[in-house]
Amino acid sequence: TVAHNIKVETNGHNNNNVHENKIVNEKPQDLQEARRQLPVYMVRNRLLEEIKKHDTMILIGETGSGKTTQIPQLIHEQRLEGAGAIAVTQPRRVAAITIALRVAAEMNTEIGSIVGYSVRFEDVTSPRTKVKYMTDGMLLREAILDPLLKKYSIVVLDEAHERTVSTDVLFGIVKLAQKERNEKKLNPLKVIVMSATMDVDSFKKYFNNCPVIYLEGRTYPVTIYHSKMKQEDYQYAAVCTIFQLHATAPANHDFLVFLTGQEEIETVMYNIKQIAKEATGPPIRVCPLYAGLPPAKQLQVWRDAPPGTRKIILATNIAEASVTIPRIQCVIDTGVVKERTWSGGTGAERLSVRATSQAACWQRAGRAGRTQAGAAYRLYTAADFRARPMHQTPEILRCPLASTMLLLIAAGVEPSTFPLIDTPPPDSVKASLSLLKELGAIDSEVNPKLTVIGKKMSTFPIEPKYSKVLLCAPEYNCLDEALSLIAVLSSENVFHTPMHKREEAIKMKQKFLSPLGDHITLLNVFKAFSKAPLKKQWCKENYLNHKNLTYACEVRQQLLAICLKLNMTVTSCGQAYDQVLKCLLCGLFTNCAWQRGGAGGARAAGRYVTAAGAAAALHPASALQALRPPPPALLYSELLVTGRSYMLTVSAIQPQWLQQVAPEYARRCRANR
Ligand code: ADP
Ligand code: MG
């Protein structure tokens, strides 16, 4: 997705957000009893003493010990936050939402009042909110407007071991804010860094030798089994393992399977349901859990299956540490994760399936020992495990930094002196600054200052490439279309393709298909959705995802509000879609690809080379797949690397357009080709 996070108007708890606000259905007294059982609760007094005593501390504790849900509540019960609020950051949106809902239920209050959450495109807080769960990206956005974070007296940076770019940058922001608030004699800022497992030494050093508190976990032994042989197909191996275990494990044993993403989870889910019809063993309930899943469906994960039924949870790495699922006896670990990487030199951004770190493998295995002894089945060999790196490389060392750099510059920070735990490779900093320069956001790559357009770009919570598209849109008479398109690109997949009705779903998609490519196809979908009177029913009939399209509508509203604040005029180009594509190219000119060996060559058909010089193919799901002859030049939104490189969300462009919208870049591309 293109968006990061957004600052929106507070709309309290009578908002019409897309999430259903109730996912906890236990009774209040049961919730209180459960709280008292948590390791954090047992040592609460000592913890509170430490929190009172120190301005900064690190808290390490097993996943499920109650750090995220309890610490903010304990602080609030003692009113340690004073007049300010407590911010608790999470790398993931789903985690921020589900945890806030859980905590609101535990405190027996409505979400959006004392307890709230704030995630990209959705703010469920009010002026009364004291405990605010938010994505790390959201707090970072707030920091541009107020680098001292004056609203907060306590900032809890949770899941620090994930080392997302936003959390890493926040470490620096809170450090500077603490210092400056002290110097200006403002109320002090307390910082609590929380994590399951992490490289404590570098953190301790970074935070000037602050105290580290270790929570005693309550864990039961987990027996680890490794594959004897290397598995060629981990999805297949996972399904086989599930059914081998299913045949003999007691029915009340629940399984947790780690996979990489939504599509994979849906495929495996379908396969399990098919095989389960004929397999020996108790009835099965399969529950998916991934970032884009609607909260109503997430609830399934925490609901007990009927007695005698086995629950099998298929999750991404979100179940590794961010959320805790009780009663898992058996973990099946494919040992892979989908990760965004980037090569600074070529500027190619990629999403690839990679082996997890040893730390992540242990985290995953640990999910089996929360309530009783369990087992973890690793679908990789012991030798493979030993060959893995201890920790995942922090995101800041492998991700595009353009939007982070833009934020830092907007916050008035000089990127080269900003204190970071790990300094990103100079190449990568240079490439992001040069992209920002190319987009016209900064005046110079050395000692950069925001330009007028750059300042506008920084107010949009989306990638600079896309905010540039919006800012260029009035010139192409297509702000209306650009808003819709970027809103759809910011949401998860809008097409709903159930495995068993694949053919029908694909047939339905034809209706929206544009020969110009996926972007206009998405625009067609969005336009039709906006006009449909009975949206839910209409989506069902057309195999579209109602939730994701509704979300896109909200995103569009938020983006529109920013455009209007910037005095931009919203006009439509009607059917002149060339305008939309040219406008898209204004921001995405680095995402061009040309047919290999020039147009026409039969052998080269469908094989492309990107502006960065990498070979890439059209994704099989692209609307352009059927187009003959294949277009000579393309524009893509994403490059997916899974063995082969696939371009996702692709449109056909005229080769000369690049020359028109980004002449300097076009010249450089020609020189490289
Ligand atoms: P930590 O942050 O230390 O990993 P949490 O505070 O997230 O721990 O969770 C503490 C406990 O609260 C978990 O062990 C789990 O039993 C329970 N819990 C948390 N979230 C939910 C939820 N959405 N539904 C049911 N139980 C939950
Ligand atoms: Mg936690």
UniProtKB/TrEMBL annotation:
Single Gene Ontology MF annotation: ATP binding
EC number: 3.6.4.13
Keyword field: ATP-binding, Helicase, Hydrolase, Nucleotide-binding
Name of protein: RNA helicase
Organism: Spodoptera littoralis (Egyptian cotton leafworm)
Tagged with keyword Repeat: no
InterPro entries in alphabetical order: DEAD-box_helicase_OB_fold, DEAD/DEAH_box_helicase_dom, DNA/RNA_helicase_DEAH_CS, HA2_WH, Helicase-assoc_dom, Helicase_ATP-bd, Helicase_C-like, P-loop_NTPase
Top-level EC class as recorded in UniProt: hydrolase
